[in-house]
Amino acid sequence: MVIEKQKPVSKIRKFFSKLGKRNIIIALAVIAVGVAVCVNWVILANRNDAGYQGYKVSSGMSNTYGNVSAGKNESEVYFASTQTSRTRARDEALEVLQSVVDDKQADEASKNAAYNGISRIAKDMENEANIESLIVAKGFSQCVAVINDDKASVVVKSDTALTRAQLSQINEIVYTQAGITPENITIIQK
Fold it and tell me: Among 14, 114, 168, 170, which residue's Cβ finds the most Cβ atoms within 10 Å?
């Protein structure tokens, strides 16, 4: 009896034909949303270390447009637009995941992955809201937290340089709420 070896190309075709075009498109959409969230997180996490051992801190830049210097309203606009873009990215991700759950042709593995994704996003949103509330309660006028897997970026409004005590408070809040260790927390001063 002679055993025929399948060519790698035919194995790949067979694998993708079993998955179905619709499931492949859904998987690619979920990956695209994940990449969008990661890009948003990377843009938000300006990683300039300020020399504090064990802490990542950067300060926001003051923008100048022509002869008009950006004033107090700039930071308010920054925080509002960051929260809006974070919410928009999450809403898009939830919409894609919900479409997988609602799809009658999707297999159970895809639906379970979508349920897990929805649950993870909901937990991240809850943790971000808790972190922001607690940091504002510590005396910062504004705060935005972005959690992506096991990393967090926290942007706080502060007119003076952050002290070690403030950095420790922020790290402790993030760790307590989300379980993210300080080496995976980036604190940005705006």
Answer: 170
Matching residue, tokens 């297999």 = 107
Q: How many domains does the chain divide into?
A: 1
CA dihedral 75, 81, 82, 84 (to 10 degrees): 150
Domain CATH number, residue 89: 3.30.300.30
The answer to whether 146 and 40 have CB atoms below 8 angstroms apart is yes
Residue type, 147: I
Q: How far is CA 131 from the centre of its chain?
A: 14
**Which structure tokens are listed for 79?**
């925080």
Length of the chain in residues, anyone?
190
Backbone angles phi, psi at 171, to 5 degrees: -60, -40
Residue type, 45: A
For the chain, state the CA radius of gyration.
Answer: 22
Q: Is residue 111 part of a domain?
A: no
Whether 108 has a pLDDT exceeding 80, the answer reads: yes
Q: What's the rounded Cα separation, in Å, for the pair 10 and 70? A: 60
Q: Is residue 65 part of a domain?
A: yes
Q: Largest Cα–Cα distance of the chain, in whole Å?
A: 84
| Sole residue written with tokens 């927390």 | 185
In the predicted structure, residue 113 carries a pLDDT above the cut 70: yes
For residue 145, what pLDDT is reported?
A: 94
Q: Is the pLDDT reported for residue 83 higher than 70?
A: yes
Q: Are 186 and 131 in contact (CB under 8 A)?
A: no
